[in-house]
Amino acid sequence: MINNEINEKVNYWQNKGFICEIWTSPPGGGWSDPGHEGDEVFIVLEGEMEISLEGNKYRPKIGEEFFVPAYKSHATLNTGKVTNRFYWIHSYKWSPTGS
Fold this sequence. Notes:
By secondary structure, the chain is mostly beta strands. The chain has one domain (2-13, 26-87): Sandwich (Jelly Rolls). It is 14% helix and 40% strand. It has one helix and eight strands; from the N terminus they run H-E-E-E-E-E-E-E-E. It has one helix spanning 2-15; strands spanning 19-25, 30-33, 40-46, 50-53, 56-58, 65-68, 74-77, 84-90. The strands form two sheets. The protein has a four-stranded antiparallel β-sheet. It is globular and about 35 Å long.
């Protein structure tokens, strides 16, 4: 049942033109960013994730959407003991080189 709910959420964002990518982070891994020009959504698929948004910390459950508004400072952290897996849903083109 949770997979159907996640698929419905992903389809919703894809139909709005968002890019939906599956990412992983090892225990203790994550990233931080001062904000992007577009909104972002995270959906945890496996493991644990902590999301910091403007100084507040959140721990979304598996299948739960977490919305990050455009230009808001945020960070992710895998607080678990195993590699996590999550959807990173965003509306802008991203490159690891910043281009």
